[in-house]
Every structure is written in structure tokens, then in C-alpha cells.
């Protein structure tokens, strides 16, 4: 349910008529320049997420090769396992990171949406290649600076794919799968895994300073992800739309339960359907894409969800 007197489409050739008591789009002749611009916008919308995956991969590669790896520090998840193996056995961190992600990407391909995994595959491949291309050069000799700013770069590189409907691979995919199966504490799972990896670094190398700085870097990365994406593992979306049947069918296919409520606008007194659904942050970008593709004029309010009691995941069968 669009607000009155504001631009809805954001595209040339469409404008709102605030003088009629409610918003509506009216046609206007497109110039040749506007038509070309519209075509480029549509192309960019299609390629945009893949470009973001590569940009995120570049941020991760810079954080690794310029800050974390020269200081012998770790990142979280599978990248941390790759790093500690590289430090101890001399293995290639980039290709080990790629190899460890392969079974998880395959698992995700079967359990999650193909678009999410396709974007994640681009992110993992780009990260692996850029880790080979970017030279390992210490940007600073100070481990504190390396841990903090390395964490910032890795956090940006991890949050950008999540915000655009993909992931940087590894534990993000595992958390997404687990969150679909049940109302599990995925945040706690990530913390436990990262703690074990950091503890392994301390026990194997005996360098507990490196282990503690690595934990600081992982914490900074998590805070950056929360800042750029969202700090909440589950969110509730309220969607006011005139295409409730089609949208509910698409949302049920995620799969997520949907509740349909009848609402009435206070200003126009028109009745609309309100769809309420609880989803995980890993599926939020897909939910937004579905809403935009079915009803660009839909009003969507996304709020944090502290806890869910009952069946979170709708069964397939």
C-alpha cells in the first residue's frame, strides 16, 4: 500500500499523482535517452548481485593477504581452518579454502535456493582466485591494528554478499541450512566453532597472543556484518499487497509459513491483505526480491524477532 504523493517506481516515464487521494502511476512518453537508461538499469539489476560478490571477495582477499595472514592471525569459519592449516603445514590457503567449501556448496545446492548458492559459488571462486593474485604483504607490523582492520575488511566482504542474496560460503551456508530445519541457535553454533578454531591455533603454535588477537578480529568482523546487514538471526516481515495469493505461494516455497490478515487503510478506507511471515536473515534478500518482482508497490515492514516458539520451518511434505 504505497504512501501518497511519493515516487514509487524510480523509473523514467512513471510518476505519481498526489492530487487524487492516493498514489497511482501514470504513463509518460519515454525519450530515447530515458529508454537507454532504463535498459541499462535493468541490465545492472541483473548483474549487480554478481558484481557485489566479486567486490566482497576483493575485500576479504585484501583483509587476509595484507593484514591477517602476514600477522599469522585467523578469520572465522572455514577460512580459519584453511589459515591454520597453511601456517602449520605450509599448504596453499586459497585452494584449501576453495576445497573445503565444495562439499558445503553442494549441500547448499540441494537444500537451499539455487540463486543463493549460485551467488555463493561466485563469491567463493572469486575469493580463492583473488587470494592467489593479491600478494601477501604486511600493511602493518602491529598485530592489534592488523586484527581490527583485517576484521573490518573481512566483515565488509562477508556482509555485502548477505545483503545482496548470497554468502561468502562456509559457515554462512551451514547456518542458513540449519535455520531452515529448526529454530536453532545458529549464532551460538558460529561462536562455538570459531572458539574451537582459535583455541586450536593457541594449542598447535603455542602463540596465545595470536589466538586472542584472532578472536578480536572475528568479533570485529561479526560487528561489521551486524552493522551492514542485520544483527538479528530472525526477522518478521509484514507485507501489505493486492497480490496476496501469488505472493503467499512464492513465500511458502522458500519454505516459510505465511499468515494472511485483512487490513483497512485509515486514509483511503480501502481493504488490503497483510501477509505476516517469519524468516531468517539469510533469506531476507530473497524475500525482498520476491516482493519486488510480484508487487513493486507493496508496503513492507521488517522488524526484529527476539524468539520463535513453535514450529519455525514449514514442512515440505
Give your account of this protein's structure:
This protein is an alpha+beta fold and 317 residues long. The chain has two domains: 46-228, no CATH class; 232-317, Alpha-Beta Plaits. It is 57% helix and 11% strand. It has ten helices and six strands. It has helices at 32-68, 77-89, 93-111, 114-133, 143-163, 171-181, 186-205, 208-228, 244-252, 284-294; strands at residues 14-16, 25-27, 234-241, 259-264, 271-280, 299-304. Strands 4-5-3-6 form a four-stranded antiparallel beta sheet. A two-stranded antiparallel ribbon has the order 1-2. A hairpin with an 8-residue loop joins strand 1 (14-16) and strand 2.
Tags for this model:
317 residues; alpha+beta; Alpha-Beta Plaits; 2 domains; 4-stranded antiparallel β-sheet; two-stranded antiparallel ribbon; elongated
Helix-strand layout with pairing:
Blueprint: E1 14-16, E2 25-27, H1 32-68, H2 77-89, H3 93-111, H4 114-133, H5 143-163, H6 171-181, H7 186-205, H8 208-228, E3 234-241, H9 244-252, E4 259-264, E5 271-280, H10 284-294, E6 299-304
Antiparallel strand pairs: 1-2, 3-5, 3-6, 4-5
Helix pairs in contact: 1-4, 1-5, 2-3, 2-7, 3-4, 5-8, 6-7, 7-8, 9-10
Amino acid at each position: 500500500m504505497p504512501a501518497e504523493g511519493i515516487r514509487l517506481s524510480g523509473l523514467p516515464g512513471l510518476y505519481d499523482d498526489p492530487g487524487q487521494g492516493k498514489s497511482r502511476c501514470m504513463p509518460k512518453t519515454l525519450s530515447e535517452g530515458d529508454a537507454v537508461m532504463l535498459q541499462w538499469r535493468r541490465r545492472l539489476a541483473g548483474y549487480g548481485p554478481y558484481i557485489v560478490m566479486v567486490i566482497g571477495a576483493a575485500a576479504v582477499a585484501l583483509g587476509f593477504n595484507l593484514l591477517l595472514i602476514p600477522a599469522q592471525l585467523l578469520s572465522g569459519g572455514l577460512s580459519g581452518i584453511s589459515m591454520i592449516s597453511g601456517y602449520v603445514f605450509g599448504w596453499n590457503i586459497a585452494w584449501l579454502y576453495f576445497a573445503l567449501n565444495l562439499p558445503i556448496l553442494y549441500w547448499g545446492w540441494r537444500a537451499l535456493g539455487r540463486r543463493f548458492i549460485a551467488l555463493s559459488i561466485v563469491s567463493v571462486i572469486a575469493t580463492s582466485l583473488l587470494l592467489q593474485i593479491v600478494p601477501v604483504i604486511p600493511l602493518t607490523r602491529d598485530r592489534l591494528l592488523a586484527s581490527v582492520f583485517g576484521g573490518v575488511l573481512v566483515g565488509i566482504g562477508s556482509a555485502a554478499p548477505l545483503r545482496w542474496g548470497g554468502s561468502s560460503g562456509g559457515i554462512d551456508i551451514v547456518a542458513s541450512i540449519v535455520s531452515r530445519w529448526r529454530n536453532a541457535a545458529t549464532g551460538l553454533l558460529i561462536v562455538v566453532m570459531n572458539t574451537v578454531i582459535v583455541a586450536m591455533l593457541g594449542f598447535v603454535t603455542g602463540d596465545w597472543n595470536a589466538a586472542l588477537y584472532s578472536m578480536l578480529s572475528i568479533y570485529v568482523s561479526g560487528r561489521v556484518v551486524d552493522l551492514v546487514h542485520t544483527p538479528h538471526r530472525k526477522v518478521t516481515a509484514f507485507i501489505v499487497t493486492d497480490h496476496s495469493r501469488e505472493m503467499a505461494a512464492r513465500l511458502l516455497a522458500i519454505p516459510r509459513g505465511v499468515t494472511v490478515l485483512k487490513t483497512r487503510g485509515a486514509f483511503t478506507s480501502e481493504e488490503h491483505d497483510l501477509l505476516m511471515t517469519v524468516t531468517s536473515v539469510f533469506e531476507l534478500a530473497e524475500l525482498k526480491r520476491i516482493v519486488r518482482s510480484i508487487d513493486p508497490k507493496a508496503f513492507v515492514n521488517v522488524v526484529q524477532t527476539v524468539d520463535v516458539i513453535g514450529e519455525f520451518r514449514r514442512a515440505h511434505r
